[in-house]
Specification:
Length: about 500
Amino acid sequence: MDKLYIFDTTLRDGEQVPGCQLNTIEKIQVAKALETLGVDVIEAGFPISSPGDFNSVVEISKAVTWPAICALTRGIQKDIDVAVEALQHAKRKRIHTGLGTSDYHIKYKFNSTREEILERAVAATKYAKKHVEDVEFYCEDAGRTDNEYLARVVEAVIKAGATVVNIPDTTGYCLPDEFGAKIRYLMEHVDGIHNAIISVHCHNDLGMATANAIAGIINGARQAEVTVNGIGERAGNTALEEVVMALNCHKHLGIETNINTSKIYSTSRMVSGLMNMPVQPNKAIVGRNAFAHSSGIHQDGVLKNIQTYEIMDPKAVGIDENSILLTARSGRAALKHRLSILGVELDNGKLDAVYAKFLDLADRKKEIHDDDLLMLAGVEHRENRHIKLEYLQVTSGKGVRAVASIGLNIAGERFEAAASGNGPVDAAIKAMKQIIKRQMTLQEFTIQAINRGSDDVGKVHMQILYDHKLYYGFGANTDIVVASLEAYIDAINKFKID
Ligand code: KIV
Ligand code: ZN
C-alpha cells in the first residue's frame, strides 16, 4: 500500500469561517484531538496575520509531539521570518510558503509577469529552506493555472529545495477529470517530480472538493490538505473524513492513511461544538443521518444483511449506534465516559457543573442524546461571560401582541426591561436592546431541534453585525425564545469594544 499524508488545515483554512474563530486554548484542544486522530501535519496558523495566530502556532508547537507543525506564509521574507519564530518549539516543523500562479493572480493581484513570479517563487523557497528543512510551496489558484507554466513553477521550486508542492484549487473551479489530468501532467512533465510530494488542496465551491482530491490522488498526489467536517470559507475545504473513508472503502486503489478512523466521529463533534458550526444532518460520514435508513425497503435489507445498503460500518468511524442513552438515573461516571467518547474531557469541578445541568435537562427530557451533552458542555464553557440572562418572561399567542420582560446580569449588576414585539423573539430582543443600547443588527438567525420530539432542545445560531464586524452567537434551551436571546447575548459577549 502507498501512504497518503494527511495535512490538516482545520486550524488555518478551516478557521477562516466568519464567526467561528477559536481561542488558543480551544485550538490546542483541537490540535491534540488531531494528533490522536493520526494526522501527519497540522497547519496551525498564519503567524504574521495576527498576534493571536502567532501565539496559537507557538502553543500548538509546544503541546503536540508527533505531527509536523506547519505555519503559512506569503512568499515574502518578513512572513517567513515570523513563521520561523512562531515554530521555534515545534519538534517537527514545516513552512508553507507560496504565490498565486494563475494569470488572474499574476496580472491583477501582483501586477506582474509569469517570469517574475517564477523568480519570486524560487527566492521564497530558498529563503524558507535556509531556516527549515521541510518547505512546502503552494501555487495558489493552481486549478486555473496553465499546466505548462504550472509545471515550470513546480520544477523550479523543487530544484530550490521544496519538499512538498501544493496544487490548490483555490476557487473550487475544477472538475474531477480536469484536476486529475493536471496532477498527471505534472507527474509526467516535471523533471525531479519524485524528489517532492505533490499535495492536493481542493475547495468545495462546486461541491467537487472530495472528488477532485481523490482524482488528484489517483493520479499521483500523496498528500491531501483537508479540514474536519470540510469546514472552511465559502463552501469549505475537502473533508478529512470523506477522503480517508473513500480510500478505506476502495482498498483496490492501494493507498492508505495513518488515520485512526474510530476517532473520526468524536473529532467531528469536538470541532463542531467548539466552533459552534453545526454539521448538516445529511453530511457524508459524520452527519446525523449518514447511517440512518428510513425507507422500509432499506430497513428490511439492512436487517437481512447490513451490506445490502451500507458500504461501511458506523463503528469504523466511531459511531456507536448502540450507545447507552443517558437518563435522569445515569451517574457522573456514565456522563464522563460518554463525554470523553465525544471528545470532551472535563476536570471534576466542571464535570459537577455539567452534571447538575444534565440532571436538570433529564428532568425535562426523557432521553439525553450526544448532541444534548455537547450542548450542555458548551453552555458550561460560556458560563463566566460578562452579560448573562437572569430571567425572561414572555406572553404571546394568536390575536395578542407579544410582550417580554427580561432581567440581565451585567458584571454582577441586575438590569430589567420590558417591550412588545411582532412575536416572542422580537419582543425579547427589543427588551434586551433597551438595556444594551448598541447599534447592532441581526444578520442571520437559524433554529434547529437537536433530535426529535416536542420536549427537544432547540439550538439557535445567530450572526450579529456590530461595528462593521460579524459576531457569531449560539444558544440552546428547551425554550426556543430563551435559546434565541442567549444566542444574541453570546454574540454581544464577543464584541470587541475599544
Ligand atoms: O486555497 C488556497 O489556495 C490556500 C493556500 C493559501 C494554500 O489556502
Ligand atoms: Zn485554501
